Amino acid sequence: MENINVVVEKIVVVLVCVYLSRSIIRYLLSFLNVEKEPITVLITGAAGQIGYALVPMVARGVMLGPDQPVILHMLDIGPAAESLNGVKMELIDAAFPLLRGVVATTDVAEACKGVNIAVMVGGFPRKEGMERKDVMSKNVSIYKAQASALEQHAAPDCKVLVVANPANTNALILKEFAPSIPEKNITCLTRLDHNRALGQISEKVNAHVGDVKNVIIWGNHSSTQYPDVNHATVGEKSVRELVGNDNWLNTEFITTVQQRGAAIIKARKLSSALSAASSACDHIRDWVLGTPKGTWVSMGVYSDGSYGIQPGLVYSFPVTCEKGEWSIMQGLKIDEFSRGKMDATAKELIEEKSLAYSCLN
User: Fold this and answer.
1) Are 184 and 220 contained in the same domain?
2) How confident is the model at residue 29 (pLDDT cuts 50, 70, 90)?
3) Which of 73, 221, 231, 283 is labelled catalytic?
4) How many Å apart are CA 119 and CA 154, to the nearest integer?
5) Angle between the N-to-C axes of helices 191-205 and 274-289, in degrees from 0 to 180, rounded to the nearest 10
């Protein structure tokens, strides 16, 4: 009994020392007023629905972490200037502790000055019944101008996320007109589709969405995208095993994810805003802070030829992130069904690229 008491006393002493050490460290950091340098985040189309949902998430630390101060640059078009100023007033009124400054402007050069992260939400909007190609030419001119401003005024290591549709091709145009920004620093948002796939699987198997891992969105952020669950798991079990219905996974599940955006437009008469803003935060957070070990996420990135996808397209792949860099997950087995779906969405991207480049002439 005496030996047990001695062991217990030693454990208590160790725990007290650990607690005191942490308290001392916290006190010293507070005393020295040590904090990270602010990161400047640009949000274009900031007066719009997605922007309005996104700016408080960034200011609260959802995108870059609870200890990362931010400076927000918000850009919108002239007719939205008054609304944009209202958003700025609300940000001030919310008294976000992490927010170190706000710039609200209609001047693209001012908006891009010194930005470290650019979230390109602004674009010609897709409305109910509109084809993606209907908005292509207008978005080409918008992204050409914004790319030029980023090229001239953004920080050299600026990371860019394109949200506005057609997101993959808008990102490609931006890359063409911002040549000094590394191609690995220009991405587009397919995390929204990734999260939609997670949500559908979660509901189907009645599992917590946080337990669903490693779905993949291949290709275009459009109705040709391919949501792939062949490598996905819930806990230790494969999604295919848990669902037990390949027909559902190969048909209804795919079309539900592909057409979710259109379904929301039909229901709200407006495009996805809350979910798009949340997914943009997820995309940047994982890119900057890293993906959890053993998991990957979906990002639209510049193809290097992986998985037989034509180089020079911005295509959604499974990626892992570490120290601010993404890498395409290699070596995944691709079955014949998946190959067909992946090639079909690549074909659409090739056609979009051709149309976009014709709009430049």
Assistant:
1) no
2) very low
3) 221
4) 12
5) 110
